[in-house]
Write a structure and sequence with these properties.
Elements: H1 12-19, E1 26-27, E2 39-40, E3 46-47, H2 52-56, E4 64-72, E5 78-79, E6 82-83, E7 87-98, E8 105-115, E9 117-118, E10 121-125, E11 156-160, H3 176-202, E12 208-214, H4 216-227, E13 234-238, H5 244-259, H6 279-293, H7 307-313, H8 316-319, H9 335-346, H10 368-374, H11 381-390, H12 403-408, H13 430-434, H14 443-448, E14 451-457, H15 465-478, E15 487-492, H16 510-519, E16 526-529, E17 551-554, E18 561-563, E19 574-576
Helix pairs in contact: 3-4, 5-9, 5-11
């Protein structure tokens, strides 16, 4: 059942009964503005009723098998050197079945961790990639080298494999139900079960529920904002691949472009795309981008905060030297390379010039993280996803041994439209089960008083920050030109895919999200830290000439962090404007 907008405090108790919360879960707004959104009340803590062994006798849910219920002593798990308190570990699976298509056994596997001292909140930890693994349910909160997690903060946390095991990757896409579970159904199925487990454990359901994930986990988060708007109060979507089928096409397009300028072949006789744009050439291009764009935010500090202005100022054709006689020495690009690399950044197109995925902004993060996606995953992971999960009908399993060839021969005219196709037992297209339906209509989430925070690295090489920015612009338009009262986007200068790159990539968005949801304190900026050599989890992409512990404000779009004076390594020297 969906919670609706509530204007009168007297209606709160009735509405909350429908939502499964407590009678304190919504506070009346004090504003006289008829358009004011509901203010959700703060969660109240609880304590595990009895112990893990006692809980084992209570657990029951339809089509669910609880395989493990055990106590985890304090200190067994750690985050950033901190011991996580004693908690209960619950493992199990839902909806086990044997596929009529491939004969394999499938189930939605999950893990929950319930702290003895509970803060009254629930946290869904979404996986990345092709899923298939039940990662430790500590409640990872995004960014690089996190210093805390949701479990340590007192949340009850769940993680899952989204309906298939890693041993079934990537061929799980041959099973139509496994496709749908991966796309959206695992979240929809697990959420009510998890809330019921929490109610049995603590004597009440969660007062507030949060969702967090990056990459495919960010896609899960964006889908949850649309499909599960009644279930979650705060959703954090990092580098979201919410157009993942198109992004996979974009990756194969990039591989094809780099193949045209490869200077060597692999052992299998295919173009070695790593030679199409070498590490030295990538470093040189990054330096040219910085020289044109670094100071546009007010200071030359190795970070391009005004990414939009950069695109208007930098020209690959004019600002990067052209090699004389096509002699490549790392200080220039050949004319053919400029065409190919320009095509990589301008985004996938078919033969008529129609865009198949978004363009990518030129930015400074062209190191190993960029290469890992554009020059490795683009001929391994992405074609595997496209061949078996994103296109209909799926390819034969024999393609699994020929993924590079499949990627380099993928037709932008004939194969790309298959992400919208259905056929036979595949009654739902990947575009339907992978993406948020009606993605700019988040009115149900908004009118409940729930919030959405999205972040995206501007050097992300697989999911374009331009794509996410375009979505946010459309969301703004759908909400009278301003969506900031319930949804905010933060772009992160230099950050690669979810972390890494010459960037301040260590941040906590969960704490400001709680303050926004439960106290009405909108996050006008989020402080991020660069993980230099002194960090407990250093990021090798951070330049050695940056000051120790550099911090930056992450600003809500369309604002940009601009230098106002003082130390270039301090967030206080910048303002969001």
């Amino acid at each position: 059942m969906k919670c609706t907008s509530i204007a009168l405090a007297a209606a709160a108790a009735l509405a909350l009964a429908a939502c499964g919360g407590t009678t304190s879960a919504i506070s009346s707004t004090s504003s006289t503005d008829a358009n004011a959104l509901p203010q959700l009340a703060a969660a109240t803590p609880g304590t595990l009723a009895g112990n893990c062994a006692a809980l084992a006798t209570k657990l029951s849910f339809a089509n669910t098998v609880f395989t493990t219920i055990t106590d985890v002593p304090a200190g067994t798990l750690k985050v950033a050197g901190k011991s996580i308190a004693e908690h209960c570990l619950i493992q199990g699976n839902m909806n086990q079945r044997v596929s009529s298509v491939d004969g394999k056994t499938y189930a939605i596997g999950f893990e929950m961790r319930l702290p003895l001292a509970w803060n009254g909140r629930f946290f869904y930890q979404a996986n990345g990639g092709l899923d298939g693994n039940i990662v430790t349910a500590t409640g990872e909160i995004g960014g690089g080298g996190p210093t805390n997690d949701a479990l340590n903060m007192g949340f009850a946390v769940i993680s899952s494999d989204a309906g298939h095991s890693s041993t079934q990757n990537p061929l799980f896409g041959l099973d139509p139900q496994a496709r749908v579970d991966y796309g959206y159904n695992a979240v929809a199925t697990l959420t009510p079960m998890a809330k019921q487990v929490i109610k049995l454990a603590y004597g009440k359901g969660p007062d507030r529920s949060y969702f967090d994930g990056c990459s495919n986990g960010g896609r899960h988060a964006m889908v949850a904002a649309a499909r599960s708007s009644a279930e979650y109060d705060g959703i954090i979507a990092g580098d979201p691949g919410f157009h993942l089928p198109k992004a996979a096409i974009g990756e194969m397009w990039s591989a094809q472009q780099l193949a045209t300028v490869a200077s060597a072949n692999t052992s299998s006789g295919l173009p070695d795309i790593t030679t199409g744009f070498t590490a030295a050439e990538r470093q040189m291009v990054a330096s040219k981008i910085l020289s044109k764009c670094d100071a546009l935010d007010g200071v030359s500090d190795g970070m391009i905060e005004d990414i939009k202005a950069c695109q208007a100022n930098f020209s690959l054709a004019n600002d990067v030297p052209t090699c004389t006689n096509d002699v490549r020495d790392g200080t220039c690009l050949t004319s053919a390379q400029k065409v190919a690399i320009g095509n990589v950044f301008s985004g996938a197109r078919n033969s008529t010039g129609s865009a198949l995925y978004a363009s990518f902004p030129y930015d400074a993060g062209l190191g190993a993280g960029w290469s890992a996606w554009k020059q490795a995953n683009s001929i391994t992971l992405d074609p595997a996803a496209a061949a078996f999960t994103f296109t209909t009908l799926p390819q034969s399993a024999s393609v699994l041994s020929q993924l590079s060839a499949y990627a380099l021969n993928f037709s932008m005219d004939n194969d790309a439209p298959k992400i919208f196709a259905t056929g036979g037992v595949y009654t739902e297209s990947s575009w339907s089960f992978m993406t948020p339906p009606d993605e700019t209509n988040l009115s149900a989430l908004k009118q409940r008083g729930a919030k959405l925070m999205v972040y995206h690295g501007t050097s992300d090489p697989v999911f374009s920050s331009n794509d996410t920015t375009a979505w946010y612009q459309q969301l703004m338009a759908a909400n009278g030109g301003d969506a900031s009262n319930f949804a905010r986007l933060y772009t992160i200068a230099g950050m690669n895919h979810c972390s890494g790159g010459p960037s301040a990539d260590q941040f906590d968005m969960l704490t400001p999200m709680i303050a926004w949801v439960e106290q009405g304190k909108a996050p006008d900026s989020v402080i991020a830290t660069a993980r230099d050599a002194s960090s407990a989890t250093p990021n090798s992409d951070v330049p050695s000439n940056w000051g120790t512990g550099r911090t930056r404000p992450l600003c809500p779009y369309p604002k940009v962090a601009r230098y106002t004076g003082g130390s270039v390594d301090s967030a206080s020297s910048f303002t969001c404007s």
